[in-house]
Amino acid sequence: MANVDGEWDCVTKSPLGEQKSVLTVRSDGNTFTGSNVGAQGTLDIIDGKVDGNKLTWKSEMKVPMPITLDCSATIEGDTLTGQVGAGAFGSFPMTGVRKG
Fold first, then answer.
1. Whose CA is closest to 60, among 75, 88, 41, 82?
2. How many whole angstroms separate alpha carbon 45 and alpha carbon 80?
């Protein structure tokens, strides 16, 4: 199993500009918990799943509007690449690097 645990400095390219955040991942077998903390507040990880080096999860965004985000990421070494799906607003690329 890939080492997906840790804190990741992430950037999501959204229509509101680049959104910086820190994604925290704590895996337990094929599931994970954690949060994604940025300027818009803290988004808890909901239904986090681990499949090798691939992560999928949901988060409930409250600001600037309530929406469920569908997220996915692939971790290779100290690099994270993924997508943040925002329903009718489309999907936005996310990149990150492991902190520390």
1. 41
2. 16
C-alpha–C-alpha distance, residues 6 and 22, integer Å? 10
- Residue pair 75/4 in contact (Cβ under 8 Å)? The answer is yes
Instruction: Write down all domains in the chain, each with its CATH number in brackets.
Output: 6-98 (2.40.128.120)
Structure tokens at 11: 């950037």
What are the pLDDT tens digits along the chain (100 aa)? Answer: 469 999 999 999 988 899 999 999 999 999 999 999 998 899 999 999 999 999 999 999 988 889 999 999 999 999 999 999 999 999 999 999 999 8
